[in-house]
## 1
Amino acid sequence: MADAQSNPPLGDGSLVDHLIMVDRFEAGDFRWKNLRHLVIIYLNQFMKYTKGSKILDLGCGTGHLALELIQEGYDTCAADLSKELVDYANLKALNAGHELNAIQMDILNLPYREAFDAVICLDVLEHVEDDRLALTNIYRSLKSGGIMICSVPALSTLYGRRDQRIGHFRRYDREVLVQGIESAGFSLCMVRYWNILGLLPVAIFEKLLYREVYEKNRYSQSYLSKSLNMLLDHWFDMVENHFHPPWGLTLIAVARKL
């Protein structure tokens, strides 16, 4: 079991290794911090909170979002396909004084029926070959009137080396994501692009230079990297989280089960 208080060794570049590396800095990383902030905003906007409102963080990764939801007062469950990440998330919650009880589970075989007021599914659907079945299972797990909040990598034309390395089957064009959500039975509440600033560097590296964007600088503790992260954090917090850009590296959708 990985110790959330230590620095687990990195491995061969797999998804688990990638997420564990991200976890070391995730609390303050501009992208993850602001994505979690948007989830809280959309929960407040689209879900009427009542005592006992139950949320599933599906594909919980290292557990930052689940922990924030607990701290916000939500009755939070969490699940992930990876046993290592489930253990990591549970220990993180325990170290923070909470009990998460995250469990290992496959999104293609969810046992729940009308169990949750909201299901959060961040950066997960692109890792699932049968994403239509995954969306159908999420729909079934929600109570009537419940909402799904999901994020996925945007723009199929940008699919490249990094996507392949971390196990993405696809990137999503807006109309494809909307069609998949509605085909599962959902009523779409909102869909938006997010992270317009990342478009140009990713396009240049993946489509002109035929190489991945060098991300380790993003997690560096150098003064330059910390300063850039702070500037990007302010940009998202004050600008991009409050308007919908015409394009972006990420698509975010909120949908309701009627």
## 2
Amino acid sequence: MANLGDVRKNYYKDVLFLGALSADPMIQFERWYQDAERIKLKEPNAMTLATVSANGQPSARIVLLKGFDKTGFTFYTNYVSKKGQDIAANPQVGLCFLWKDLERQVRIEGVAEKVDEEVSKGYFNSRPRGSQISAWASPQSQEINEEYLDDKRKLVEDQFADKETIPLPPHWGGYTVKPSRIEFWQGRSNRYHDRFKYQLSDSGNWKIVRLAP
């Protein structure tokens, strides 16, 4: 087994003060996201999505954030994929953004809900044709043989060859994760990291507390 005990990095780029935080976590997230874009971070919208199956097995994978607003965080996927099946059984999910070059992390907990079909259709229509065909061809998360995807893709290409617009697959669309907890983490030296948690109250207001590193 590789010994990674001596692999460590000291963080020093920034500090996070309570007084500098927005009262609204979505505004605070937008500020940090804009910082990630400003330094041209590669794929700042990449996030870990954690789900739990009906039998309690956790699962995590990287997906791409495709929008956020006061409602929550939106991504798109195959509804019958592993993640889709997990969300159908248990809509409680977690998201995590890691922006290493800024020494920042954002953790989100909330409920995933399907977006309106018209919203999914609008985003699907904006995708490249090749990606649209892949959405029809791939039975995401299912076991397949070597030739399956090439054969299925050819069938789908033939099916829509004479159509200018490819329709939205019935098994594909978006989810919005509506947050109840958002944590902002700023790396600090000597592991004295800054952590602030926004917790949504029953009254719909956000409470901010500092967490120990």
